[in-house]
């Protein structure tokens, strides 16, 4: 009596045909090629514009994977914003309470808020009145509306700075380069009245005059106030107003990596455990004995 | 190792009630450990940069 055993391969159990694999692979290669060509064409179009792209600066918060913002710099940046930028730019999404325990103590933040006048009301006679600011107030707007802002600035609207670092290509690198990048216009470019040449600004002609010069601010903490120091501090401040949860997020990243890898290992082990029976089984069959 | 495993099993995982208890206490201890240690590492990496490092300059 002769017994014949046949063995089925894993791929034939699962019913996957090799032909389908090769079709998928060739399809994938062609697809990647087309996508790559599209990306290359798109990039070459971008490279034709004449905007000067900002270099990557060594910000403290970028030097390490878990680095926070430099909060001492953010505090100085608030001073620069208040004394210089706030003359034209609003920050209507930032409130004084956000300074508390981030850059200022509660008393200091209350004192900062009390420096502004806020229109409140109506009172019991129906009239609006002015009162000193409170912690819950937002940063003051230098102009009552956009039209007034345009009228005061040759038709150019000074953008709200709350989220400006997130809203511009290049982020804080761009803002820093813009603030420190004012130069004389090269030959052949005419600069009209109320315009200034800045190679980092798209188009090159910007309606904002250079605002930061050496020692235009006297820092509370005694840091030498060079123009680049002022620009660095105000960029850190704008980064913080755009992402006030940045520091917390960096801590979360660390915890997510630890918890995430534990969950990944558990899932990986569970999958191997569940499939171990299926993966290691062999299917045998006995050939039917034929009658001679 | 085998002795340790069987002791653990007999003490902690044999009954459903002790298993649940082990899971709850284990989760609590694990979370406290991870939170405290990541906070310590984070503070060490960013020493001198956070508000709590500079606030003594401004508090009276």
UniProtKB/TrEMBL annotation, chain A:
InterPro entries: Cyt_c-like_dom, Cyt_c-like_dom_sf, Cyt_c1, Cyt_c1_TM_anchor_C. The chain crosses the membrane at residues 20-41. Residues 72-224 form the Cytochrome c domain. Heme c binds at residues 85, 88-89, 208. GO terms for biological process: mitochondrial electron transport, ubiquinol to cytochrome c. GO terms for cellular component: mitochondrial inner membrane. Belongs to the cytochrome c family. This is Cytochrome c1: heme protein-like protein.
From TrEMBL, chain B:
GO terms for cellular component: mitochondrial inner membrane; respiratory chain complex III. GO terms for biological process: mitochondrial electron transport, ubiquinol to cytochrome c. InterPro entries: QCR9, QCR9_sf. It is found in: Mitochondrion inner membrane. It is a single-pass membrane protein. The keyword Membrane applies. Keywords: Electron transport, Membrane, Mitochondrion, Mitochondrion inner membrane, Respiratory chain, Transmembrane, Transmembrane helix, Transport. Pfam families: UCR_UQCRX_QCR9 (PF05365). The keyword Cell membrane does not apply. It comes from the Eukaryota. Belongs to the UQCR10/QCR9 family. Component of the ubiquinol-cytochrome c oxidoreductase (cytochrome b-c1 complex, complex III, CIII), a multisubunit enzyme composed of 3 respiratory subunits cytochrome b, cytochrome c1 and Rieske protein, 2 core protein subunits, and additional low-molecular weight protein subunits. Component of the ubiquinol-cytochrome c oxidoreductase, a multisubunit transmembrane complex that is part of the mitochondrial electron transport chain which drives oxidative phosphorylation. The complex plays an important role in the uptake of multiple carbon sources present in different host niches. This is Complex III subunit 9.
């Amino acid at each position: 009596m002769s017994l014949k055993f046949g063995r089925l391969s894993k791929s034939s159990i699962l019913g996957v045909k090799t032909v389908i694999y090769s079709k998928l692979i060739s399809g994938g290669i062609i697809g990647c090629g087309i996508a790559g060509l599209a990306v290359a064409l798109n990039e070459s179009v971008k490279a034709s514009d004449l905007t000067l792209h900002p270099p990557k600066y060594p910000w403290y918060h970028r030097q390490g994977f878990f680095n926070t913002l430099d909060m001492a710099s953010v505090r100085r940046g608030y001073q620069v914003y208040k004394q210089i930028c706030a003359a034209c730019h609003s920050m209507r999404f930032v409130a004084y309470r956000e300074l508390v325990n981030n850059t200022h103590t509660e008393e200091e933040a209350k004192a900062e808020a009390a420096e502004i006048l806020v229109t409140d009301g109506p009172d019991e006679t129906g009239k609006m009145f002015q009162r000193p600011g409170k912690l819950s107030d937002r940063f003051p707007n230098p102009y009552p509306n956009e039209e007034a802002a345009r009228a005061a600035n040759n038709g150019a609207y000074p953008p709200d700075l709350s989220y400006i670092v997130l809203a511009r290509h290049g982020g804080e690198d761009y803002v820093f380069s813009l603030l420190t990048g004012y130069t004389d216009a090269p030959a052949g470019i005419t600069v009209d009245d109320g315009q200034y040449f800045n190679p980092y600004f798209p188009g090159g002609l910007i309606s904002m005059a250079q605002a930061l010069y050496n020692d235009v601010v006297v820092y509370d903490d005694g840091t030498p106030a060079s123009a680049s120091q002022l620009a660095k501090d105000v960029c850190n401040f704008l980064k913080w107003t755009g992402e006030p949860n940045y520091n917390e997020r960096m801590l979360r990243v660390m915890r997510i990596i630890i918890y995430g890898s534990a969950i990944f290992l558990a899932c990986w082990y569970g999958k191997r455990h569940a499939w171990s029976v299926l993966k290691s089984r062999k299917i045998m069959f006995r050939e039917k004995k034929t009658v001679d | 190792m085998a002795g340790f495993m069987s002791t653990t099993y007999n003490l902690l995982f044999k009954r459903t009630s002790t298993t649940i208890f082990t899971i709850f206490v284990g989760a609590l201890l694990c979370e406290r450990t991870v939170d405290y240690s990541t906070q310590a590492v984070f503070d060490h990496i960013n020493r001198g940069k956070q508000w709590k490092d500079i606030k003594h300059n401004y508090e009276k």
